[in-house]
Amino acid sequence: MSDASTLTVGEPRARRTQQERRDATRLKLLDATIECLVELGYARLTTLAVAQRADVSQGALFKHFPTKAGLLGAAVEHLFPRLIDEYRAGFDGLPAAPEERIAEAIARLWHIYQRPELLAAIELYVAARTDPELAAALSVVDPPHRRHLHAVARELFPNVAATQPGFDALIELILNAVQGAAVGGAALPSNPDHPRMLALLTQFARRAFSSSP
């Protein structure tokens, strides 16, 4: 006779707890929000469209996220770590020397900034200029996200971070240069200046990373 504690073929699985169901619904809503934001843009995104895509009621959506701004802020907060993990993947096999690693780091950064999800998130930051509620929601998300970005940069370039007093400012310069070009590229994706800009940025970063403090 089999052990009663062993799950046999055909035996129903244990029911999910209420918290597990809540977490699963929340995750569906966040993924649906990102998808709607990519497809519809901020101006046309509605909580009804998100609820329908997530296959939940609008009332259930508001139980998790009482405001549209709170939903959008949570969706961006959910998205950023996923993109950072994608960015970091594969760096283990690269040379440790920063002047050799920096070209790949900038190329990967440019690739990530071409992702529709990230461009959609940037759209929210632009919209926040005239939407105080959205600005408040994003203001909670942005500081830890920037700290995470700098932590990854220090992980990828530990020697430079330890010896260059201006390392964080240099990382901000690189991030903002790539982000600015990516935003401009949304309107002019085939801009021939972008490859030249990236090559110049890589050359500048190599010099900065290899120079003495």
From TrEMBL:
<feature type="domain" description="HTH tetR-type">
    <location>
        <begin position="23"/>
        <end position="83"/>
    </location>
</feature>
<dbReference type="InterPro" id="IPR009057">
    <property type="entry name" value="Homeodomain-like_sf"/>
</dbReference>
<feature type="region of interest" description="Disordered">
    <location>
        <begin position="1"/>
        <end position="22"/>
    </location>
</feature>
<dbReference type="InterPro" id="IPR023772">
    <property type="entry name" value="DNA-bd_HTH_TetR-type_CS"/>
</dbReference>
<dbReference type="GO" id="GO:0000976">
    <property type="term" value="F:transcription cis-regulatory region binding"/>
</dbReference>
<dbReference type="GO" id="GO:0003700">
    <property type="term" value="F:DNA-binding transcription factor activity"/>
</dbReference>
<dbReference type="InterPro" id="IPR050109">
    <property type="entry name" value="HTH-type_TetR-like_transc_reg"/>
</dbReference>
<protein>
    <submittedName>
        <fullName>TetR family transcriptional regulator</fullName>
    </submittedName>
</protein>
<dbReference type="InterPro" id="IPR001647">
    <property type="entry name" value="HTH_TetR"/>
</dbReference>
<feature type="DNA-binding region" description="H-T-H motif">
    <location>
        <begin position="46"/>
        <end position="65"/>
    </location>
</feature>
<feature type="compositionally biased region" description="Basic and acidic residues">
    <location>
        <begin position="12"/>
        <end position="22"/>
    </location>
</feature>
<dbReference type="Pfam" id="PF17940">
    <property type="entry name" value="TetR_C_31"/>
</dbReference>
<dbReference type="InterPro" id="IPR041583">
    <property type="entry name" value="TetR_C_31"/>
</dbReference>
<keyword id="KW-0238">DNA-binding</keyword>
<dbReference type="Pfam" id="PF00440">
    <property type="entry name" value="TetR_N"/>
</dbReference>
